[in-house]
Design goal:
Layout lengths: L12 H4 L12 H4 L4 H22 L3 H14 L14 H15 L6 H11 L4 H9 L9 H20 L9 H12 L3 H14 L10 H15 L8 E5 L5 E5 H5 L3 H23 L1
Helix pairs in contact: 3-4, 3-5, 3-6, 4-5, 5-8, 6-8, 9-10, 9-11, 10-11, 11-13
Length: about 280
């Protein structure tokens, strides 16, 4: 189930419009336009990789890059990836997502810097790779390529804003994970494994099929499972206003049901790891 059955507050209209079912992923604009679902998954992954590559070049925080990734997945639930002469390039949309996420998360980068990052990140030549590593690439503002990227990013940013309905505030599972694990006293190495699992999950559209708390709990559940750690060993003390105390189970701290956390963990295993490993081979 993707809708919560726990005590969490009901989803707002703004949040619920970005929650989809697995069957919805087989009816995206890209698939309806003739693109194979596996190819769509692959291109989404490449778009996310482009976001992280640009983010590293710009020295952006993980938070900003995660926001950009979620924008990309949401965008392609309503718009089609490029197929022939129709649709949108995942690379060009990725660049626009980075530009917009920098603004929303108050990590401002000027447009020329975004263009430098895009051009450096997509240059696969040995010299280009070296410039990316050194962060030394500076595009010529008078060049045609600079002008093309400038226009492309600005046009796609406008498309992003309209497609996302200006709903730009994102609830991040990473933050939920860290806060919950801190309350539960989870070992640092296990938190890092769950964090890495969440990072990997952004390669896939799973972030639009589960609410952020459920995805965070699913990553924690999977980290425990692969590490042969029983999640029920973790609990947190709760104190009421009148001095009464109680022990909260890990599911209470994440504010999820164990069944939905387990379902999210299974989805991460099948949709993120198994699926992408199969495509790699």
């Amino acid at each position: 189930m993707t809708a919560s059955t726990s005590t969490r507050a009901a989803l707002s209209a703004a949040d619920s419009q970005w929650l989809f079912t697995p069957s919805d992923l087989l009816l995206t604009p890209s698939v309806l336009g003739g693109l194979d679902p596996a190819e769509e998954k692959h291109r989404r992954c490449k778009g996310v990789h482009a976001i992280y590559r640009m983010g590293e070049y710009l020295r952006l925080s993980q938070h900003v890059m995660n926001t950009a990734c979620i924008y990309l997945h949401r965008f392609f639930m309503r718009k089609s990836l490029q197929n022939g002469n129709a649709g949108y390039s995942h690379y060009e949309v990725a660049a626009a997502c980075v530009f917009l996420a920098c603004k929303v998360e108050e990590s401002h980068r000027k447009l020329p810097s975004i263009i430098d990052a895009a051009m450096a990140s997509f240059d696969k030549s040995p010299a280009g790779q070296q410039r990316w590593m050194e962060r030394s690439f500076r595009a010529d503002p008078a060049s045609k390529e600079f002008g093309r990227w400038r226009d492309t990013i600005l046009v796609n940013e406008e498309e992003l804003l309209e497609t996302l309905c200006f709903d730009l505030i994102v609830e991040h599972p990473h933050e939920i994970l860290v806060k919950a694990c801190s309350r539960l006293g989870v070992d640092t190495w296990l938190v890092r494994l769950a964090w890495t699992t969440l990072n990997d999950s952004l390669r896939d559209s799973i972030c639009v099929t589960f609410e952020a708390p459920v995805l965070a709990a699913g990553a924690f559940y999977r980290a425990c499972t692969v590490s042969q750690v029983e999640p029920t060993k973790f609990s947190a003390k709760w104190k009421g206003k009148e001095g009464d105390e109680a022990q909260l189970a890990w599911t209470d701290v994440f504010d999820v049901d164990e069944d939905e956390a387990a379902e999210a963990a299974r989805a991460i295993g099948s949709d993120v790891y198994a699926s992408h490993e199969q495509h790699a081979h």
